[in-house]
């Protein structure tokens, strides 16, 4: 720490340093942040420092710092006597696997990482550079919030960041890692970014903290219960990845970057792939149970279809009735959306719809082709769903698919009922290739429900209503609970054996790699938010 008026305060008793020595002193001072005592306190909490985090994230020796000697300008509340070089945030650029990345890391050892006017200016400058140069930006957040000594200046700094987040949205990937506290206005910048990572037991996010909650609603809740990684990865869906520790968090950040391009005009990284291998997957022929009401794990289908060990699931523990994530097929980066029959029979509900819609829109922003694996019996019924807006929330997923111009391929593995058939990337809403397995059932509803409606009078008048119902169910099943009527109409491009699916997908995505689709000229659409 030093005063603004006496830059060499720690060396006042020494002879005047040379210019080189002064630079060395300032570099050492900046790199010490809030001092060794506070660094030790950070480590005791199981947390790394801002610079340690950047060192783990970027390729060795690639980091170039910007604004290392910036100091705050506040003179109120004794702040004119307390200055730290860098002002609580480390900003700069470097590479991850050789690719340009911009990064800022808030330094909790300096004023608790609180955001000031100059702190915000450093972040804004970095965001401007990232946008101008078309490269991802990563924020490593660890901050107590706005620096209250600065009043409206810190609030203005937050708003400046939010504005840039919004301008950059869909242009460059924006990733946020919450590695400590993130409260009040600070939560909105991560919320606007594309993906949020949190660290279990050491990070939390909330708009109002436990004390305010207790005062206003009389609820007693801990910071971890209110806004910890577990809460936001399971209940709210605010965070996409919950990580066991900071090292795992940074490794996940790097893995995610490997699937996505530098910007909206770039293509995702393509890995070399030997196309001469055997792409048949016989295990898929027996993955669908004989009983159409018996569940199975869609992740098993995904693992057979994608390149080995490449599936990176997003939102693993939230809205588990749908599975989304990144993977590779034939070395090509793709986004996967699959109904999950093992949870709620794979129905679409409010959370599943918004989870998948958000993911689809990200993939479309950044030219990541979409694979949709469909086994959906419909939308979840009930007053809770209706009163909380299943109509508009379900429409978000429909809108996202309709709007997407990236290559889109659908495979119907089993059920495709009602409006959910339409929503799950059907041919009618712009899918490029639609495949179905022989086990596919494409109909307005299940055979039993359909028979009860269509043949209601006939069943009621029968001598044995139950036997008549079963007869009509079998009749409806034979006529409609199969993929062939849809194939006759061209709604299904090909009915294929499950073991052929990977081979078909590799060829389909290769065929679609130069797809060009244009949207009508408009300012922007009005998604049903």
Short structural description:
The chain is of the alpha/beta class and 529 residues long.
Offer a few descriptive terms:
disordered N terminus; alpha/beta; Propionyl-CoA carboxylase beta chain; single chain; ClpP/crotonase-like_dom_sf; 17% strand; 3 domains; 8-stranded mixed β-sheet; 2-enoyl-CoA Hydratase, Chain A, domain 1; COA_CT_C; 529 residues
Structural summary, described in words:
The chain has 20 helices and 17 strands. With 529 residues, the protein is α/β, with parallel strands linked by helices. The chain folds into three domains: 14-257, Alpha-Beta Complex (2-enoyl-CoA Hydratase, Chain A, domain 1); 282-446 and 481-511, Alpha-Beta Complex (2-enoyl-CoA Hydratase, Chain A, domain 1), CATH 3.90.226.10; 447-480, no CATH class. It starts with 18 loop residues before the first helix and ends in an 18-residue tail after the last helix. This is Propionyl-CoA carboxylase beta chain. Residues 276-522 form the CoA carboxyltransferase C-terminal domain. Residues 16-272 form the CoA carboxyltransferase N-terminal domain. InterPro entries: AccD/PCCB, AcCoA_carboxyl_beta, ClpP/crotonase-like_dom_sf, COA_CT_C, COA_CT_N.
């Amino acid at each position: 720490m030093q005063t603004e008026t006496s830059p060499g305060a720690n060396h006042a008793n020494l002879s005047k340093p040379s210019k080189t020595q002064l630079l060395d002193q300032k570099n050492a001072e900046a790199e010490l942040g809030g001092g060794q005592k506070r660094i030790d306190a950070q480590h005791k909490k199981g947390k790394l420092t801002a610079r340690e985090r950047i060192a783990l994230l970027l390729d060795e020796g690639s980091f170039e710092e910007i604004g290392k000697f910036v100091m705050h300008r506040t003179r109120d509340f004794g702040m004119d006597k307390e200055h730290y070089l860098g002002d609580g945030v480390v900003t700069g650029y470097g590479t991850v696997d050789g690719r340009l990345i911009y990064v800022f890391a808030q330094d909790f050892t300096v004023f608790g990482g609180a955001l000031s006017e100059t702190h915000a200016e450093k972040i804004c400058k970095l965001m401007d550079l990232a946008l101008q140069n078309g490269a991802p930006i990563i924020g490593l957040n660890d901050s107590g919030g706005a620096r209250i000594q600065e009043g409206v200046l810190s609030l203005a700094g937050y708003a400046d960041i939010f504005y840039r987040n919004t301008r950059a949205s869909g242009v460059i990937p924006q990733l946020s890692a919450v590695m400590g506290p993130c409260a009040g206005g600070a939560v909105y910048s991560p919320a606007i970014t594309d993906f949020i990572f949190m660290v279990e037991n050491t990070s939390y996010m909330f708009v109002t903290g436990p004390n305010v909650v207790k005062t206003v609603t009389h609820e007693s809740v801990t910071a971890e219960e209110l806004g910890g990684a577990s809460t936001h990865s399971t209940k709210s869906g605010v965070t996409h990845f919950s990580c066991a520790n900071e090292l795992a968090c940074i490794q996940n950040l790097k893995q995610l970057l490997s699937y996505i391009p530098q910007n909206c005009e770039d293509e995702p990284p393509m890995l070399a792939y030997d196309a001469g291998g055997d792409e048949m997957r016989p295990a898929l022929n027996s993955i669908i149970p004989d009983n159409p009401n018996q569940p199975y794990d869609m992740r098993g289908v995904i693992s057979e279809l994608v390149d080995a060990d490449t599936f990176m699931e997003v939102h693993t523990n939230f809205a588990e009735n749908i599975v989304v994530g990144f993977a590779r097929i034939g070395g090509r980066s793709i986004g996967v959306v699959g109904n999950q029959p093992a949870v709620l029979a794979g129905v679409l509900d409010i959370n599943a719809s918004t989870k998948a819609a958000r993911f689809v829109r990200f993939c479309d922003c950044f030219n990541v082709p979409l694979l949709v694996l469909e086994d959906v019996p419909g939308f979840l019924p009930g007053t809770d769903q209706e009163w909380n807006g299943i109509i508009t929330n379900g429409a978000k997923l429909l809108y996202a698919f309709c709007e997407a111009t990236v290559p889109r391929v659908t495979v119907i593995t089993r059920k495709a009922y009602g409006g959910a058939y339409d929503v799950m990337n059907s041919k009618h809403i712009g899918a490029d290739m639609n495949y179905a397995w022989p086990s596919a059932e494409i109909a307005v509803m299940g055979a039993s429900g359909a028979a009860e409606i269509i043949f209601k009078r006939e069943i009621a008048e029968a001598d044995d209503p139950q036997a008549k119902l079963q007869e009509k169910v079998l009749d409806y099943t034979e006529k409609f609970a199969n993929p062939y009527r849809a194939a006759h109409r061209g709604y299904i491009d090909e009915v294929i054996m499950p073991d052929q699916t990977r081979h078909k997908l590799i060829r389909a995505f290769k065929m679609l790699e130069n797809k060009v689709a244009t949207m009508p000229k408009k300012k922007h659409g009005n998604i049903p938010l």
